[in-house]
């Protein structure tokens, strides 16, 4: 025999109802005992816990290492070593241009344009009419400086995918300055063809 206790909220009086052989159904995990709902003919019971939740907990064999102490300590000088005048070291732009000077940027321009021409000529017969590769034009040093600047800005402003940097729909998280400096299609083309060295033929004997 199962006894259910219900409370009459409106009158403030309590009454007791007795029922036998009431049907049982499985209720949410974590509810202990039997629990009445609006239907007095249904009782909830807690189902048995699945075996995948029966863990065999064991203590650590030794004291865990704090996350901060897990890092490898870097003791060497990092980055390029340049003998720059003191006034230039205080300018991030000057340091960047000392590493990525016009000579190396000119080399990247040459290899990028070469690679783009090779790839487009190989695919000329299979390119769709709407392919953005038809819009490729040779790049130059100034544009590649802009391209690298965009990459640095992306590292400071993280988004879930590249296209979101060019959203200008009045969203609170929009970044309209990317589109002011370079179009999305042009950035994708540069990103596709950027090249630093001429590909060499490797002969396997």
In short:
The chain has 205 residues and is α+β, with helices and mostly antiparallel strands. It has helices at residues 67-70, 86-89, 92-99, 102-122, 141-156, 176-181, 184-193, and strands at residues 2-7, 14-19, 24-26, 35-36, 43-45.
Largest sheet: 3 strands, mixed
Give the beta-strand count. 5
Which percent range fits the helix content? Answer: 25-40%
Integer average pLDDT: 76
Low-confidence stretches: 1-20, 22-35
H/E topology pattern: EEEEEHHHHHHH
Query: Biggest sheet: strands side by side, in what order?
Result: 3-5-4
Structural class: alpha+beta
Oligomer: single chain
Dominant shape: extended
Distance between the termini: 88 Å
Strand content: 5-15%
Number of helices: 7
Radius of gyration: 34 Å
Organism: Parnassius apollo (Apollo butterfly)
Domain PiggyBac transposable element-derived protein: 91-198
Biased composition (Low complexity): 10-20
Pfam families: DDE_Tnp_1_7
Describe the structure.
- It contains seven helices and five strands, in the order E-E-E-E-E-H-H-H-H-H-H-H.
- With 205 residues, it is of the alpha+beta class.
- It has a domain of 94 residues.
- The longest helix has 21 residues.
- The chain starts with a strand and ends in a 12-residue tail after the last helix.
